[in-house]
Amino acid sequence: MRSKGLPVTAFKEGRGFLAQRQKLVRETVLPYQYSILNDQLSGVEKSHAIQNLRLAAQKVAGEEVQGEYYGMVFQDSDLAKWMEAAAYSLAERENPELEARLEEVIGLLEKAQHPDGYLNSYFTVKEPDKRWTNLQEAHELYCAGHLMEAACAHYEATGKDRFLRIMERNADCIYQHFMEECPRGYSGHPEIELALMRLYRASGNEKYKELALHFVDVRGQEPHYFEEEKKRRDWILWQRPEEPVEKEYTQSAKPVREQKDAVGHAVRAVYLYTAMADLARETGDPTLKAACETLWESITQRRMYVTGGIGSTVLGEAFTVDYDLPNDTVYAETCASIGLIFFARKMLELNPLGQHGDVMELALYNTVLAGMALDGKRFFYVNPLEVAPGISGEAATQRHDLPQRPQWYACACCPPNVARLLASIGSYAYSAGEDALLIHLYLDGHVDTPFGWGLDCVTGYPNNGKVTYTFTGGARETVALRIPAWSGNTVLKHNGKTVDLASVLRDGYAWLSGGFQEGDILELELDMTPRKVYASTRIPADTGKAAVMRGPLVYCAEGVDNDGDVFSLSLDQNGGLSAGAFQPEFLGGVVPVAAEGWRTQPAEGLYTSQKPRRERGEIRLIPYYAWGNRGLNQMRVWLPEN
Amino acid sequence: MRSKGLPVTAFKEGRGFLAQRQKLVRETVLPYQYSILNDQLSGVEKSHAIQNLRLAAQKVAGEEVQGEYYGMVFQDSDLAKWMEAAAYSLAERENPELEARLEEVIGLLEKAQHPDGYLNSYFTVKEPDKRWTNLQEAHELYCAGHLMEAACAHYEATGKDRFLRIMERNADCIYQHFMEECPRGYSGHPEIELALMRLYRASGNEKYKELALHFVDVRGQEPHYFEEEKKRRDWILWQRPEEPVEKEYTQSAKPVREQKDAVGHAVRAVYLYTAMADLARETGDPTLKAACETLWESITQRRMYVTGGIGSTVLGEAFTVDYDLPNDTVYAETCASIGLIFFARKMLELNPLGQHGDVMELALYNTVLAGMALDGKRFFYVNPLEVAPGISGEAATQRHDLPQRPQWYACACCPPNVARLLASIGSYAYSAGEDALLIHLYLDGHVDTPFGWGLDCVTGYPNNGKVTYTFTGGARETVALRIPAWSGNTVLKHNGKTVDLASVLRDGYAWLSGGFQEGDILELELDMTPRKVYASTRIPADTGKAAVMRGPLVYCAEGVDNDGDVFSLSLDQNGGLSAGAFQPEFLGGVVPVAAEGWRTQPAEGLYTSQKPRRERGEIRLIPYYAWGNRGLNQMRVWLPEN
Question: What CA–CA distance (Å, rounded) separates B621 from B546?
């Protein structure tokens, strides 16, 4: 069954776990990131993103440009993602100061836009004669896509259309160039495709869908556009002239319908797949749908970490090969898991299978949340599953696996990406089919359905497994509620009466057909018993090991809870796990888990034939998302089991 | 007690394990490598090393040069190492054809040498105006060092001094330049230092020792020579002008006496340390000795694989940080373990500690022997401890970890290095102090001591632990026999009477004082019980795992012996090991080991909460050096133990 997402305004946050993160984004992350984007915070990597736009506005106005462009070629996109997050937060609650800041930036965008609709601060300020000449590297369409998403979000959230009109003019300019003048070109970094689909829905203008489909179709065709472009162009950003075009990296090694494995730059991959799935849903093209299913399986069955992280290597920030999932040299970029959530959402809208929702939840509650410190002011770009201070961040192969979160990055794609995802999480939790509401995530708060009725949800999830929905109106329509595959013993009640799950469960969703009255109550009780998880023996890195999960949360052992040494710990193969009481003051409120295990006594020297002595010991585990918030220390997800 | 090595002519090989390798080198490896160096073998990486020399000879003679230089800037060194190996083999047995080939190449060297003694085919043919202007990268002194070593070997082995004289003239040219004209310069790749010490001993000329010490002393001083050189020079080989000088890579980050950790390019490191230890022995300089001991400990106590491999990363072919010893992304270059053997030999000559001999033996019987296929015609440059076809050699992070040995390499340093080490292994087995013969390795064959008496050694080591020495002359002097730390239950008999080991064992050597008669027999019986070895829990890669060893041999599980899947195997923590009977026809003659263990049944999907079923199973293990000789398949040294 096809469904479609609800507008961000349909959801009002409650007081639960994710609502706390949304509040953090609203109250801390957005002002903090604005101060960086506006160069008001010292001691962090400089952004200059807003200033770049001011310079572009001066240039377009024919004024003297008061300074130089600074930062990555895609610096505009950091600001765009922040704008998108800010817009969502306005949907949740009014904030005149933030609204004014947004209007100011929108005003700058308006001024920085050329009369023909072109809008990009890098090219306007720094390379005015080089527009569209380096699609492989220069992120022009990528930046445009992020601004389009922000514009759609702003329109959805506020109903104001100034920003939307700017980006429609920009999209028209792009349409003109790529449908007429340069019909073989497409972006080295996918993003415009999924953004055009949003713009199509916000504006109702079919030509944006047409352009999105065109960009997807033309990608990877031979003769290869980037090879031809390279011959024509006399400038580079990174790639040396003598090097061949990185086709996997730019997601252009093959036409999209011929791709069988998730390869290359992981963020680019999932951004592309998101648009493919959206178009498959929109057009009904079975070949596009089949390609999405193949790529989904490639990721989730062979190339994904237990934390929902993707991209095994820093080299090209990329997927590698099946079952190559090292825990220490891992990349697992925060943005890649965010993109995986985008892809999962579109796969759900295309076909609601529990596995799509389970993966969405896994990536969200583990890698994405780990990407931001509990205080909202530090961020991981890379999300290792194992950290040994002295090695992590130090060894040549692990320079990128930082053991602590930095405040900002020269390439700052992840921090505002986390913000926009969390600020709009309600729109991921629900989608609506023709006559059904689909519930993908359990979010404390209220949702208004397009059918005229609403649901109040109260839950302490994921700290506990109890989720209660109350109908705020009578409902003819079906409610399809995701039942996670990990929940062994699930109880679902309708007005206190237990529902026979077996009879309603299909593909990971409980399908409850209509006839709900206002005030009806659905109670879901998920099985939050902590459990050990085992990896396929095809993953060399995880053999002989187990990870601990509880609900959707992966747990980890941190040195600070385990006498400073997690590498001498092992799980007892017959040992139990026990969840502690909810600790509201610990790490922002967590349920710690204790595991029966062993501590191996340190031996002399590097290698010994003496079997090391070991003692029984309790292993103290915390949710993975909360690691790295208590100073430099060890961390490990996969523990030997013996 | 200081000792010094015996000449290569003092040892005559018998029929034992290493003698078979020496025979293989003589009969197969040397002709095979010559055919490659002389471009007579098709389908392998081209060498052109001999042809480069012919071109250089034409150039020096003022003739028209008939072709172009081909290959690495250090192509001369491949040939030099082959010449050194060939010379050693002549010490073992006459071979007029090989001798003629050597004479022909020596003749070419003579013709390629400039009147001032300069000798280097790359600079002579390709860059005649750039002599000594890129010491950081250009390997000029490195190539000279290898040719000096070859000349010394040829002189030692044959008594003929034509080659030696050529290299003395070359050393004089270098002395002149570096002691007088350019006294702050030194080589980016150490080698000349240890070679000059050999040349000093072969020629008796003290100035070569003086130059070796000068090169060691001047290294790493500030202002930094390579930084100054880089400013002066307008050409590069690899390093881009905007990059800083790679000081650790070139072993020049600090003056040698200030170095505390083994860092940078592993081969460069141990070649340097070898010269340092040799000079410490020769000069008695306690600061140099202390530096060697510190660096020895850094390697062997914190940065060495259980196989005696060193260099954890392909990035700079380098050491990384303490305890970073990944088994799959490992580098562990064959040449680095050869260099570790050089260093160990010089440490032994400086101070005979069992640990030096144990490490020498470990590196020899595992990494170095693994570097060459059993047929002598394929070679590993990189020696992984874990190989999963599909990942190894494929994943971006493991491109260098090939699962099968290639025939040759564009950078072919390792193959002839193995040949020269094996061809001269007798000179590593023994050294002589003032009044003692020190026995470091157990080699079937005969040794003549400088004291006028000899020893016949008969042994099936390392396939069995029995070593019998028969005196071929009366001996006043002490015999010090290494007793490996791994031998738990060692029996030593003198003429059938058990020696009280405790009373004679000191620092890993049994010191048996004089009074031996001709025909006296020493019988050593080492404990060859297979054993499990455990790594320090500080090594994240090996936690929860054990390796299996027997004598000096590390064992591994190969897919071909284990139903095609070693990654689902684990050792039983209470399970035994059993050594099989010696199988003379299997892998060139090995003792296989079987371990009691488990096979985990493959589970569905990537991760599962179902504890995977497992069944008891026998794990079949072979010596690590013999892996990769039966087609593409899995291999693993460290196995989970549970």
Answer: 13
Least confident of A510-519, A575-584, A614-623, B405-414: B405-414
Contacts of A470 (CB under 8 A, 6+ apart): A455, A456, A458, A519, A520, A521
CB A454 within 8 Å of CB A437: no
User: Which of B427, B440, B375 is closest to B404 using CA atoms?
Assistant: B375
- Residue A536 CB: number of other CB atoms within 10 A? 23
- Residues of chain B contacting A312 with CB distance shorter than 8 Å: 395, 397
Angle at A293 between CA A290 and CA A296, to 5 degrees: 150
CA dihedral (B19, B20, B24, B27) in degrees, to 10, reads 70
Query: Any CB–CB contact under 8 A between A382 and chain B?
Result: no
Residue B481 to residue A228: CA distance in whole angstroms = 70
CB contact under 8 A, B545 and A391: no
Where along chain A do its domains lie? 47-244, 429-525, 531-640
Q: Where are the alpha helices (DSSP H) in B477-582?
A: 501-504
The one-character DSSP state at B115 is: T
The residue of chain A nearest to residue B541, with distances taken between CA atoms, is A541
Give the pLDDT mean for B298-312: 98
On whether the CB atoms of residues B212 and B144 are closer than 8 A, the answer is no
For residues A424 and A157, what is the distance between their CA atoms, to the nearest angstrom? 10
Q: What is the ipTM of this complex?
A: 0.95
State residue B367's pLDDT score. 98
CATH of A429-525 among 2.60.40, 3.10.20, 2.40.128, 2.160.10: 2.60.40
Query: How does DSSP classify residue A451?
Result: T
Cα Rg of chain A (Å, integer): 24
Question: For residue B264, what is the nearest residue in chain A, using CA coordinates?
Answer: A396
Q: Please name the residues in contact with A34: beta carbons below 8 A apart, sequence gap of 6 or more.
A: A40, A82, A86, A101
For chain A, how long is the longest CA-to-CA vector? 78
Question: Average pLDDT of B68-95?
Answer: 96
Predicted TM-score (pTM) above 0.90: yes
- Rounded CA-CA distance B152/B190 in Å is 18
Q: How many separate helices (H) and strands (E) can be counted in chain A? A: 19, 24
CA distances in angstroms from B357 to A425, A470, B430, B486, B551, listed in the order given: 63, 77, 11, 12, 13
Mean predicted lDDT score pLDDT of chain A: 96
Q: Please, are residues A573 and A344 in contact by the beta-carbon 8 Å criterion?
A: no
Question: What is the fold of B431-525?
Answer: Immunoglobulin-like (2.60.40)
CB A478 within 8 A of CB A449: no
Taking each helix axis from N to C end, the angle separating A96-112 and A162-175, rounded to the nearest 10 degrees, works out to: 30
The mean pLDDT of B519-545, rounded to a whole number, is 97
Give the bridge partners for B493, in sequence order. B498, B523
The residue in chain B having the minimum alpha-carbon distance to the alpha carbon of residue A300 is: B606
The contacts of residue B8 (CB under 8 Å, 6+ apart) are: B88, B91, B153, B156, B157, B424, B426, B427
Instruction: Tell me how far apart the alpha carbons of residues A452 and B208 are, in angstroms, rounded to a whole number.
Output: 94
Q: Report CB contact under 8 Å: B605, A537.
A: no
Phi/psi of residue A183, each to 5°?
-75, -5
Peptide bond into A484 cis (omega under 30): no
User: Long-range contacts: B313-316, Cβ < 8 Å, 24+?
Assistant: B313/A395, B313/A396, B313/A397, B314/B382, B314/B399, B314/B400, B315/A396, B315/A397, B316/A396, B316/B246, B316/B248, B316/B249, B316/B264, B316/B265
Contact between residue B364 and residue B341 where contact means Cβ atoms under 8 Å apart: yes
Q: Is the pLDDT of residue B514 over 80?
A: no
**Could you list the active site residues of B?**
317, 413
Structure tokens, A525: 């009780």
- pLDDT per position as a tens digit, A295-304: 999 999 999 9
